[in-house]
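## tool: complex_structure
## caller: assistant
## args:
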Amino acid sequence: MKKTDIQTPFFATHLGSIIKNILITLILTVAATIAAFWFFRHVPENPANIALVYITALVLTARFTTGYVYGIFASLVGVICVNYLFTYPYFALNFTLTGYPITFLFMLIISLSISTMTSQIKTQGKVLVEREKLLMEAEKEKMRANLLRSVSHDLRTPLTGIIGNSSTYIDNCNTLSEKEKLDIVSHINDDSNWLLCMVENLLSVTRIDERSMGIATSLESVEEVAAEAIQRLQKRLPNAEIHVQVPEEYLLIPMDAMLIEQVIINLLENALIHSKSTLPVELTVTDDSEYVTFKVKDYGIGISPERLKTIFDGSPYTPDNSNDVHKGMGIGLSICKTIITAHNGKINAFNHEHGCLFIFTLPKEKK
Amino acid sequence: MIPKSSILLIEDEENIRSFIATTLKNQNYKITTAASGTEGLHLCASLCPDVVLLDLGLPDMDGIEVIKKLRTWTSTPIIVISARSHEQEKAKALDYGADDYITKPFGTVELLARIRTSLRHSSQMNAGSLQQVPVYRHKELVVDYEKHLVTLSGEMIHLTQIEFKLLSLLAQNSGKVLTYSFIMEKIWGPYVDNNNQILRVNMANIRRKIEKNPAAPEHVFTEIGIGYRMAEADQS
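## result:
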């Protein structure tokens, strides 16, 4: 039972392509015959037209079918029809006319060479697609390797802090003052929050991998996603000041809402923490016919041009001034890139006069 | 001091259990803990707690099963504790009769707010749902159920029939998350199809009428993949 189940579709597609080829051949030869009749009636002075019509049909047949059989069939039909219908004596086969075998031979050569060319073009196309796929795979693989590298770096830092602080507390419980104890615990709290944020990022990446090829999207409202992202961020950073603007129109975009929220949160958090500025961060969503654009803009110190080039690569950030080592932008942005790429969107970073600007786009649903 | 209310916590993770128990004890709740679903069901039957906090990932049985079993005999509010990014699981728990959910990791403030909301709703239910407060008030927004009137900073807001029904349903359950399927059934009847697009478009329209900025809502919040939650009414 199962075996037939598997074989049927294969057989069906095979049969389908045969039927398609036969249909193409028949339509083209019939059309050629009709055209030939027209020429025969209206332009009888130039019988060469009729042969040309059949050659055209033959070329097209060879081009649009797979395999040699159909082209050969079309050339046969052409030769026979010209002989039977359009040369004297009409409605009778007469292969004794001089040069007829040569005509047939030429038509055969044309059909064979066109068929060969067609199948060559098709194989080349397949090879190209194959190569493209391999390149994509390599790209993904590279991204994953980068991610792993930055993860191990970024995870170790807060964990070291948590372990160190908590063991200090346990070992010196009796000698520490209340103030020192509070300090230690709040450090642990900070580090765990940072760790949580990172784990959430990593979890979102597993959401992509789970469904091998990309992500499961559903239509989500842009304003709802933006609102929830901000709400979640403000739970963690209650003092964050974010100005948000969405299009007046109700917009639905195919996406994995959880992942896009993660991207918005990462970008906003970067803007709030790394801009070294107390000015509010702006999130603007605009509707640009083919896609929707999200912009996160801050008014801070900006990003150095060298850093800008590799900002989405996930390479651990080694800043010039070492006071930022703790909370590098490491994995957050490379995860943003992974997520947006999986959505067939684009993400870019720029500097503007007073800070930096991150832009990502998501394609709209195809009508 | 008399303990406020009794709470049963069903959670298998020792660390989380002790953290929640300590927090709630400090808030003067009477708390009992259970480490497995079976133990939780027994304790619930013998103690009849005012609120049940239930972790969905239990070792011995599925959290959804616990909800189903509890719902056969009690209407005690159940607050589900679950990990993020499993929206479907949460929606399922709510549709099987859980009252609310809270996502790990959560802060104390959030947990206490959820418990308060659930307690308030259950006491209202016990007093008879007809004795509802006639007016919902939150910041500048006022929904008057009887007069069919919605005002924002004193100005009247024009809503369609459906929009008003939706808003009052949310307001009557303020503080609590309502799932898409629950709202759809309440507003459009039990035979409506699964497509919730119509609900979301209506919500978008309401948002444009009552929120200053639809992307930074103050009154109605979206829980993506699950439903909507209206801000808790101001205590008057």
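## assistant note: The two ends of chain A are 40 Å apart (CA to CA). The longest strand of chain A covers residues 355-363. Handing back to user.
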